[in-house]
Specification:
With 405 residues, this protein is α+β, with helices and mostly antiparallel strands. It has helices at residues 2-20, 35-68, 84-112, 148-153, 249-265, 274-288, 290-293, 311-314, 317-326, 339-351, 371-377, 384-391, 396-404; strands at residues 120-127, 130-135, 141-144, 175-178, 183-189, 194-198, 203-207, 213-217, 223-229, 241-247. It has three domains: 26-69 and 82-112, Helix Hairpins; 120-265, Immunoglobulin-like, CATH 2.60.40; 274-368, Cytochrome Bc1 Complex, Chain D, domain 2 (Orthogonal Bundle). Helix content is 43%, strand content 14%.
């Protein structure tokens, strides 16, 4: 009786949990949005129905035999050990079934590995805990992180994850590809083993450090396709989703042109207010720092130091910027940050209420540049470093007007 009560309570709790679960529960493979995924789905269903037929035949025969040849009906157990005919039959029939299953399976495996004759190639690098994409044909390169809304929701208990659209399945910069083009993917990793999986494409591939795996896809219809890392790559494994946006060729070409122009612009060297710097700095922090130092800046005891009240954070600004760019044995070197990103991050670290720091200063983008960078950007202005230090930007016409006032 006690066991029955425990079972009933367990089922009740499980049912209550299903009502609030965030995952989509399915009983079968996703049919997908590519010809290859449809081929794999059809193969799966073929094998499934063969297995169902075999199961019905085997268990049906077994249950029939048990029921109709039971001892209560006067049947006696047969006394034999070998039967050549039976052994030949149950060897030939499974062999024929396996051959029938192997032919379409082999074709599908060959199709999966046929990466030749691709129209474009994209290198995918898995890192803890985000993806880096490089379009080898155009030179476009960017990182794709978990979006800010999901990042905050899973770290702040007061935020309801159900209020966040596509919770843990959205990113700040999606992978964009054209439709009706054969795209080759090259997978590798910069730290540990990751695995790139978008169910609608019909396959997944491991991204291993020091190795390159490849796969291909061709999407027929425009749309948004979501996936995740499916390898246990560390503590924040569940927070590195994948978003693929497929669009028509003309839209894709316009997107590539726009992204290349953005990357060629360089850092934004305009002067910004402290509130603007803090807002942008929070985004940089959530993309690059929050996993180790936590959203409240308290870090992880014994592993990652706290930023809240840290003398290194609240001390000399130039030393802090140099430390961020140089990195340590545990922290990667963030030389990838542009001057404006570094400036907003430093301002956020030193003045964010969420991190418990309030130095009361601000760092502008030009102040995150070296003297050589300032000379290269402003070759005609001899006092560019002095103007930057005094006014937070290098704009002679604005500086003159300010002096007159």
């Amino acid at each position: 009786m006690k066991k029955t009560k425990h079972l009933f309570v367990s089922m009740l709790l499980m049912g209550m949990g299903l009502e609030t679960a965030q995952a989509d529960y399915t009983l079968n493979l996703v049919q997908g949005s590519t010809q290859l995924s449809h081929e794999l789905y059809d193969l799966h269903m073929l094998i499934l129905w063969i297995c169902v037929f075999i199961g019905i035949a085997v268990f049906g025969t077994m249950f029939y035999s048990i029921f109709h040849h039971r001892k209560s009906k006067g049947h006696q157990a047969a006394q034999f050990h070998e039967n050549t005919t039976v052994e030949i039959i149950w060897t030939i029939i499974p062999t024929l079934i396996l051959v029938a299953m192997a032919i379409p399976a082999t074709k599908a495996v060959i199709d999966l590995d046929h990466v030749q004759d691709s129209d474009m190639s994209i290198k995918v690098t898995g890192k803890q805990w985000y993806w880096e994409y490089e379009y080898l044909d155009s030179g476009l390169r960017f990182e794709s992180h978990l979006d800010e809304a999901s990042e905050k929701a899973h770290r702040v208990s007061s935020i309801d994850p159900r209020s966040v659209p596509n919770y843990l399945l959205n990113v700040d910069k999606p992978l964009v590809i054209p439709v009706k083009k054969k795209i080759r993917f090259l997978f590798t990793a910069g730290d540990v083993i990751h695995s790139w999986w978008v169910p609608d494409l019909g396959w997944k591939k491991d991204a291993n450090p020091g190795f390159v795996n490849d796969a291909w896809t061709s999407i027929d219809k425009p749309g948004v396709y979501r996936g995740q890392c499916t390898e246990l790559c560390g503590r924040d494994h569940g927070f590195m989703p994948i978003v693929v946006i497929a669009m028509e060729q003309d839209q894709y070409d316009a997107w590539v042109k726009s992204e290349i122009e953005k990357q060629a612009k360089g850092p934004d060297l305009d002067k910004h207010t402290r509130s603007d710097l803090l807002s942008k700095g929070e985004s940089v922090y959530l993309r690059n720092c929050v996993a180790c130092h936590q959203i409240d800046g308290k870090g992880i005891s014994g592993w990652y130091p706290a930023l809240r009240g840290s003398a290194k954070v609240t001390g000399d600004t130039s030393q802090l910027m140099g430390f961020i760019q140089a990195g340590t044995s545990k922290m990667p070197a963030f030389k990838k940050l542009k001057a404006d990103e570094l400036a907003t991050l430093v301002t956020y670290l030193r003045n964010s209420p969420d991190l418990g720091n309030s130095v009361g200063d601000e760092t502008q983008a030009c102040q995150a540049l070296s003297l050589d960078d300032l000379d290269d950007l402003y070759p005609d202005i001899d006092n560019a470093p002095q103007l930057c230090k005094e006014f937070g930007e290098v704009k002679p016409e604005k500086v003159v007007s300010e002096k007159k006032d």
